[in-house]
């Protein structure tokens, strides 16, 4: 064990999908790390010490040997470069086009589908499901998610690109916003998301204590 | 000149900050490409042929030898891998930590600062400035932008990381949303943004016909 393991700052309740994404990358690579929890409701992410490290006062932030980095996709890319395959497990596909597509998926899931992300917050996935029906707009957004996911996921495949990559976890979480709340999801995508959800790295996050 | 140059799909009015980002990467690298303009108001991005290429019906999309890719940061990363330095100009820093920080900046500018992006749309930068004052929320957002940019930009520096990278262009555009509309911007940041704006690659985009 290293003397100074990596530190990952996450939200107090372990509900941030972006903190989860980095957490899963770290666990898939088998890198020792500690988590530091910030209570966002108590504005702990706005405290000066954290803000100076994170720059943008967002979670997650990774600190590695004094280097503090925020934005989950940037962190996973950094981990892929510093703890690179084949010594460590790959978080991204090795093929240039597949790696590009994985980045597209990550960027898209972080900048689109707002009505769905809003009406199916991750607290409904990790803490308590909701019984509120989806609005018409959120249903349209869900349809877009299904259409894109069905185009991306090859027939019969368990992963987007042959082997697992971090975009699988991100896409599975977006689908689980619906699956976990009993919303209608095409069977093939439901199976995909549910299988992704069973990965030990993901389950380790899912089963964090939240009380 | 290659027989099949790259094709970049952009919005009809050349106002998408993400299309601009890829456009600038292509020009900095000196890669021949053609632009195809989609009238978003006429829903041309929702037409089946485009949707099948872009997957998500967003601009920009780059098509390179039959491979269609969307999401501007994913496209610039792809171009950096396929048209790599030192044969082509670098779009990202070579240092691992600086490259990580550039990715952080790109991801942050694409997922935060919403009130500012909304009240200072890029039409006010490229077509017609607005005289509407910023709301209190947008002013707070501008303060966050200034605080982060001032921490990122070394004193006296013209670029974030020594040499130009695509995160400079993205950050400059975010600042120009304010500069172009006469909003208050700290002098050092105003100088930085205005200098970045003068790069030939950026001016080539700025001076596109928009009528
Ligand atoms: Ca940081
Ligand atoms: Ca808790
Ligand atoms: Ca695409
Ligand atoms: Ca026009």
TrEMBL record, chains A, B:
Record-linked PROSITE patterns: GST_NTER
Pfam families named among the record's database cross-references: GST_C_4, GST_N_2
CDD domains on file: GST_C_4 (cd03195), GST_N_family (cd00570)
InterPro entries: Glutathione-S-Trfase_C_sf, Glutathione_S-Trfase, Glutathione_S-Trfase_N, GST_4_C, Thioredoxin-like_sf
Ranges for domain GST N-terminal: 6-87
Signal sequence range: none
PANTHER family: GLUTATHIONE S-TRANSFERASE GSTA, GLUTATHIONE S-TRANSFERASE-RELATED
The name this protein goes by in its record: Glutathione S-transferase YfcF
Originating species: Rhodoferax lithotrophicus
């Amino acid at each position: 064990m290293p003397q100074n393991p990596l530190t990952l700052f996450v939200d107090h309740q372990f509900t941030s999908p972006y903190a989860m994404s980095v957490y899963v990358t770290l666990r898939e690579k088998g890198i020792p790390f500690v988590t530091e929890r910030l209570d966002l409701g108590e504005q702990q992410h706005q405290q000066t010490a954290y803000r100076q490290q994170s720059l943008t006062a967002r979670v997650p932030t990774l600190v590695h040997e004094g280097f503090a980095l925020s934005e989950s996709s940037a962190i996973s890319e950094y981990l892929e470069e510093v703890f690179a395959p084949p010594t460590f497990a790959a978080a991204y596909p090795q093929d240039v086009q597949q790696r590009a597509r994985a980045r597209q998926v990550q960027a898209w899931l972080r900048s689109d589908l707002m009505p769905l992300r809003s009406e199916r917050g991750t607290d409904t996935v990790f803490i308590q499901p909701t019984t509120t029906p989806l609005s018409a707009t959120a249903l349209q957004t869900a349809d877009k998610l299904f259409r894109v996911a069905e185009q991306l996921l090859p027939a019969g495949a368990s992963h987007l690109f042959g082997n697992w990559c971090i975009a699988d976890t991100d896409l599975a979480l977006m689908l689980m916003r619906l699956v976990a709340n009993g919303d209608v999801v095409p069977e093939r995508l439901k199976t995909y998301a549910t299988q992704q959800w069973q990965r030990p790295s993901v389950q380790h996050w899912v089963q964090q204590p939240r009380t």
